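REVIEWER CHECKLIST
Item 1: Sequence provided? yes
Item 2: Single chain? yes
Item 3: Sequence as submitted:
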Amino acid sequence: MPYFQYQFNTAPEWQDILLAFLGELPFEVFEETEDGLLAYVPAELAGEQLDADINDLQSRFELSWSKELLPDQNWNEVWESNFQPVIVDDFCAVRAEFHQPIEGVQHELVIQPRMAFGTGHHATTEMMMRQMRHLHFAGAKVFDYGCGTGILAILAARLGAALTDAVDIEDESYANTLHNAALNGTPQIRAYCGTLEAVPHDTYDIILANINRNVLLETMRPMAERLRAGGTLLLSGILEQDVPVITESAAAQGLHPISRMQQGDWVCMALQGREQ
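Item 4: Structure as written out by the authors:
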């Protein structure tokens, strides 16, 4: 499949914020550069509407951009060849099948890296894993909302979750989650493709939601309805500037913050539901 490469040049202090906005457009992979970002999108989606959305961003940020049609090739193969292991202290590591085993960590996750968000390289995913270290997963029912490659669901299973439901709107992410769950010997993961409504209504002890501001705000109520009394909702994909509106939305559903972590402009928040 042919892809367009978009190059965005902007100041370092704007990169994280720009990435958050670009993440809501149909780009599949991002790379950070010294001057800004590279973003990749299937050629069929690189039309006038995408360019118009980018021009709108240009009116709000100090940035310049250009795009180039890349030759048709096996992009997943290219992505896999560039994939590097992710190590989160002595807690966990994420590697591909073709990497050597990683010693000195409590939990080693092996995935088939595909062009899907959530391989652990982005600060939002890394913070989710760091926060998960301090949650009680033994025997818990867990929901991974926006599962990407499935690593958070797999980590939850490794930490003792009795069952984990996972959902993503992307077909590739859904298929990759099933593959990676089998690869890691975690049959307690049930994957679904679609929106939140694609998952049978159930209640969970822990909900993991690493998505984006708009989806978090739009689905705060149904997430709260699926959270058991006193359960934990772990959120990421939040920019520091959006913490107040996220906190206000959560409070309206009886959720209150219990911990917070930040890397750069990105924030990960743990909230607890009210006890009955």
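Item 5: Key structural point noted by reviewer: The chain has two domains: 3-73, 118-273.
Item 6: Recommendation: ____
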